[in-house]
Amino acid sequence: MTQPDPLERLRALQAHDLPVHGGRTLAYVYDSGLPEVDRVGREAVAAYAGSNGLDPTAFPSLLQMENELVGFALDLLDGPGTAVGTVTSGGTESVLLAVQAARDAHPDVVEPRMVLPATAHAAFHKAAHYFGVEPVLVPVGDSYAADVAATARAVDEARDRTVLVVASAPSYAHGVVDPVTELAALAAARGIRCHVDACIGGWVLPYAARLGRAVPPWTFAVEGVTSISVDLHKYGYAPKGTSLLLHRTPELRRPQLFASAAWPGYTMLNSTMQSTKSGGPLAGAWAVVESLGDTGYELLSREVFRAVDAIVAGTTDIDGLDLLVSPQSTLIALVTDASCDAFTVCDEMATRGWYVQPQMSYGATPPTIHLSVSAATGAHVDELLTALRDSVRAAQQAGPVSVDDDVVAFIEALDPAALSDADFDGLLAASGLVGGGDSLELPERMAEVNALLDVATPAMREALLTAFLDRLSRPVRRADGIR
């Protein structure tokens, strides 16, 4: 090893990232605030980084850990004795597999469809795109919960083609638990699967109920729920990336499994979308769950809900800021009044050392400020509320950000499906995402960029951001990168 220490360069690169510890990043990461738990998870990942989950007979320890994690989750989520599960790489893979299994359980259905509330995670749209399952979106009402009657009508419009009904526990954008009892019942009455996406709430809502908080029923205790996705790298506080897809019976899971002997090599046998997969994330998750156990998670849940309640109470004293809807879990969505805008508040929070996530408008819902509260945030709630108050005040002084009318008209006149590379270049430059040529010039403050994206249609927004991602993903040659 004649090169300079790569870990030194790694630390230098990582210094530009959002902090993953300290409770100040309220999206993307979930922090228990317990250094010892983090240490155990990291060491387990390192110990199993070279292990391969492709063949459980070659690495039986991985199979044992997976079965124990599934068992722990099923005990937590009222799984019947027949229930089974699989560890996946994350919530999106769990959702993809749930949709794929529902589709493949009905090989006779030529044009399968699934019915989901408009608030369901975008991973379902990704599954629809990958697997050719039509997504039928049902609008939600003022409560931001799924509309049961509208869902029933949507299912009955093409019952013979509907293979899945979806519910969230809770929805990511708003933190609302859908009426799973009613949705599962209407699905069961029609012989249709019902999947509950509890990726973000599945490891914390059971403890919320245990602590006496009002949580609508959503687990396998609800008749008609056929599968549940729940992430370990969110409120399981495990290293990225691990999730679980749980099925009520082995028969329901069977279409998820893939085998192929149609080549001269080994017979491929997979339970997930991956074949080769590192044992590191699985071992890290197992080690964290083993360390915390049921009691540890209950204590962490107590901490996180104490923080949620304090944040909710504190925002009532901040003029210009309000709750979009009362949170039912650990997710908070805030709205601003006409005196300022959500995007500027997010920028101001960043200058004060806090990352809160801007969410674009959707239908009649205005832009929101999203907070995913984790246990580590609890020790800093007073600082968070002070930063929010100061950020709103600064945003009010600056005034709401606006987009030039001519730019709005230009965007509205474009067809995102027919944009040329030159159109993309012009739009990216107008949005402030790139400078001349291929150079990226991402501004430190994103309010104007987000405001421009917000006036674009969802299709145009997708096109712009896809072009931006393409620009980001360009090779760094040896002269400037790895040598």
UniProtKB/TrEMBL annotation:
Its cofactor is pyridoxal 5'-phosphate. The keyword Amino-acid biosynthesis does not apply. GO terms for biological process: carboxylic acid metabolic process. The modification N6-(pyridoxal phosphate)lysine is found at residue 234. Keywords: Aminotransferase, Lyase, Pyridoxal phosphate, Transferase. It comes from the Bacteria. Pfam families: Pyridoxal_deC (PF00282). One of its GO terms (molecular function) is aromatic-L-amino-acid decarboxylase activity. The keyword Kinase does not apply. Belongs to the group II decarboxylase family. Sphingosine-1-phosphate lyase subfamily. This is Aspartate aminotransferase family protein.
